[in-house]
Write a structure and sequence with these properties.
The chain has about 400 residues and is mostly beta strands. The chain is built from four helices and 26 strands. The longest helix has 17 residues.
């Protein structure tokens, strides 16, 4: 059994064995009362679509080869592999599968609009006359089913801002307008700041590159964008900024000469727009989640005082690090809100695995009850049964 399959088997066994209620000898099934993180899904950047009574999870990796895979569930606990749902060589494919990181097919998100399913994703663009190492753009593919097969709308990316971009997220407002949020890559984007000056003074790094989150209105048919992108979030410029400490940990810990603002997801509650985002090195232990709020979809956004709202717990006796790039979903009865994100544990090592933890929004403040690795009660409205040992 190879390493990925062995890890999946171990995670599945752990999840089910710790989630089953005790049953009398001889019985063949039991009603589950709890679930346990991490889930037996090896995804980075997990995104969950809930439609027609079923949850579909998409993400980076998960066994996909130069494309994207999906899982499905009716209870948010048991997840069934649906195999690969997007392939780079579909008739309109525009990516470069031979580029670094095998084309880097990252962060898929799927949205249902008028009976069609639209997959937004990041990949290396094959049009690369200057041979950039990072030449990411965002594409859109469509399918008749959430399990695909997805085919690109056109044979080119959604748009070209002139710099590499990743982590597409779409928000559809109540007035019918749709907005695309994305992260400009750190690549060739050195930024002057007090943190950058400190890094030079200490001899850590010569420069600090940064990724920034932008937003732009989408055309109704997702064929392009309307107007120019607007800068919405970036790492703090001054050390006095209350966000500077947690958003600069990858630099101050000398992990890497980059500061990230990426993996954004936007939702609306009441009259307020919430943008969750991830900061620090995506491959390191300090990857964490914060959020900002605004009164309009394109800002201005103000970062929250209680950031970060999700981070590693290894320094508090736990085993989880690298918590980030989340999406949100709701329980089967719609009464509970959940944060879906990836992380690493002492057992899973460098493999990113999926966590689902409860989150609340009260008085304009987001709280996430995680990361957890102990048994959690089932999502409200979920009636789950499973085979007993």
């Amino acid at each position: 059994m190879n390493a990925p399959k062995l890890l999946t088997f171990l995670l599945t066994t752990l999840c089910l064995s710790t989630s089953m209620a005790q049953t009398a000898p001889g019985t063949t099934s039991a009603k589950l009362t709890t679930y346990t993180n991490p889930l037996p899904v090896q995804f980075g950047d997990p995104y969950v679509l809930h439609t027609r009574g079923t949850y579909y999870m998409y993400g980076t990796g998960g066994g996909a080869q130069r494309g994207f895979a999906a899982y499905s569930s009716t209870d948010m606990v048991h997840w069934k592999s649906e195999g690969q749902v997007y392939f780079h060589d579909n008739k309109n494919g525009w990516s470069d599968p031979k580029a670094k990181w095998d084309g880097a097919y990252w962060a898929p998100e799927v949205y249902e609009v008028k009976g069609k399913f639209y997959l937004f994703y990041s990949a290396q663009w094959r049009e690369n006359p200057t041979h950039e190492v990072e030449n990411f753009r965002i594409g859109v593919a469509v399918a008749d089913k959430p399990t695909g097969p997805f085919v690109d709308l056109t044979n080119k990316p959604l748009f070209d801002p002139g710099y590499p971009i990743i982590d597409a997220n779409v928000f559809m407002d109540s007035n019918g307008k749709a907005y695309l949020y994305y992260s400009r890559c750190c690549y060739k984007h050195p930024v002057d700041s007090e943190v950058a000056r400190l890094a030079r003074q200490k001899g850590w790094f010569d420069e600090i590159e940064e990724s920034w989150v932008y937003g732009v209105e989408l055309k109704p048919d997702f064929s392009g964008v309307i107007g120019q992108p607007v800068l919405l979030l970036r790492p703090p410029v001054t050390l006095k900024d209350k966000q500077a400490s947690w958003e600069s940990r990858s630099v101050t810990a000398r992990e890497v000469n980059r500061r990230w603002t990426e993996g954004s997801v936007t939702f609306k509650k009441g009259n307020r727009y919430y943008m969750m985002y991830s900061a620090n090195h995506f491959g390191g232990q300090y990857y964490a989640i914060g959020y900002a709020t605004a009164t309009s979809p394109l800002g201005p956004y103000t970062k929250a005082a209680n950031n970060p709202i999700l981070e590693k717990n290894s320094d508090k006796g736990g085993s989880v690090t690298g918590t980030g790039h989340n999406s949100i979903t709701y329980s089967p009865d719609g009464k509970e809100m959940f944060c879906v994100y990836h992380g690493r544990t002492a057992k899973t090592g460098d493999e990113r695995v999926v966590f689902i933890d409860r989150m609340t929004v009260k008085d304009g403040q987001i709280t996430i009850a995680g990361p957890t690795t102990s048994p959690q009660k089932l999502p409200s409205g979920a009636a789950v049964t499973g085979k007993a040992r």
